[in-house]
Amino acid sequence: xxxxxxxxxxxxxxxxxxxxxxxxxxxxxxxxxxxxxxxxxxxxxxxxxxxxxxxxxxxxxxxxxxxxxxxxxxxxxxxxxxxxxxxxxxxxxxxxxxxxxxxxxxxxxxxxxxxxxxxxxxxxxxxxxxxxxxxxxxxxxxxxxxxxxxxxxxxxxxxxxxxxxxxxxxxxxxxxxxxxxxxxxxxxxxxxxxxxxxxxxxxxxxxxxxxxxxxxxxxxxxxxxxxxxxxxxxxxxxxxxxxxxxxxxxxxxxxxxxxxxxxxxxxxxxxxxxxxxxxxxxxxxxxxxxxxxxxxxxxxxxxxxxxxxxxx
Length: 312
Hints:
This protein has helices at 14-20, 25-29, 73-85, 94-98, 110-120, 162-173, 185-188, 222-225, 252-255, 273-283, 294-298, and strands spanning 2-8, 33-37, 61-67, 70-72, 86-92, 138-143, 153-155. By secondary structure, it is α/β, with parallel strands linked by helices. The chain has 2 domains: 2-102 and 133-173, Rossmann fold; 182-301, no CATH class. A 5-stranded parallel sheet has the order 2-1-3-5-7, sandwiched between helices. It has a two-stranded antiparallel sheet with strand order 4-6.
């Protein structure tokens, strides 16, 4: 029996929905799991049943799942408590692994962000931000979980696929290690690559690609077509399906004839996607300077340790 604890921080809740989307396969795993803390499913009192505790406490567990980046003091305190009480910590989802979409806020200082939200938005009456007494104090930026505590397993995805979560849980139950292969989206993409662009400038991602509906074997690489695609620097696995042959899985965005947005994060934890994608584009004759809002666009899902305030 594996005891499981889960916490969610700066996140939309999509990772938790992936847990529910496991479906019938979850029935085979649940008898071997004891969920001791999971706010999305159960009411566990962090400060004791009577609320008379002085600090948050999480039961001891074998496996700790954390979704979302660390944005405020409460997130940080709970992350430290999870690390203290859990033998294995999993950063589940791209927000936990790399900050995700919330980390785009790292392009501004906390003060500038609050001023924009409470004083400069059209249609909003100017007011003071909530005091630290009523809400947990914001940290200076959004942090990935491994910037605050030691993480044993990274499982990215926005959201991670139910199939990968099942593989993770089965690995833990069997006492085995788990890690996604270090392959890029391009390694699993069926489009044709001729290693040169078709000409013209880089287009907005929402413009249509040239393709034959229902087919992928005759579609030209989207970067070569001029649609900015982060496939060369993004980890593969976004369309992992339970029971399917991984070699036959088409990346989610590509399956919709859209360029990859980078939601699975870099191929390796130590990668530099900005330098790598600029090199990939230059290699086929594209000018990376044409990418609109280049810094934010390339780091859309991975800004925790990469994006810095632009308003200082």
